[in-house]
Amino acid sequence: HPRSGQNPALRSFIYRVARLARLPINVIFCYDGKERPTIKRNMKVSKSDHWMVRPTQRILDAFNIQWVMARSEAEAELALMNKEGIIDAVMTDDSDVFVFGAQTVLQNSTLSPDDTIKVYTADTIRERVARSLHREGFILMAVCCGGDYDQTGLRGCGCNTALGLVRCGLAHGLCNATSNVPDVADSLRVWRRDVRDHLAHDPTKRIGRLRPTLARTLSDTFPDPNVVSSYLDPVVS
Known about the structure:
By secondary structure, this protein is mainly α. About 45% of the residues lie in helices and about 10% in strands. It is elongated, with a radius of gyration of 20 Å. One of its GO terms (molecular function) is 5'-flap endonuclease activity. This is XPG-I domain-containing protein.
């Protein structure tokens, strides 16, 4: 817009920071660090900082607002800080933050004029969606439905089926199969066998329907253990 000046993105950032500065809260901004993934959302991630990093940091300094650099991804760093009680909530529009272990998430990064902010908590999600939807459950959901590290996921598996697999108790087995085991490939083979059985026969009735075709087409290479590990053990400070 011609009235936005030479740097409309920075102008917008200043307005958002000014709105935050007027609220009775302490804010910490977090930036992606040097060890961030090289590939994300099927796109190559530059090793260089985005051009807005330094200018926005100077703006935050001017407002006396704290900022930190994560070792890798900001979402993972903030999720850890939230889980450890260092911060009360994470403000982001990226739902992957629950996969990293966040407990309370605020959505409205644009700070709309009416100041309406949606609050999501891990406890409420478990109460209203599924009691078995702990962090491992979120990881299984991300692996099956697709996420930042693998947008494809399990082809043909929607959110309802993935949630059914969580309710069947298969999330813990997935995470165990990719960590602290002598043979990851064999552990995942056993896990896939269990998944196929639940998809084809739904013995616990927690999926709600039979998915024999999905059971047959489940690839012997699913999931990529590196994707699971990226969610389970992210690089954090």
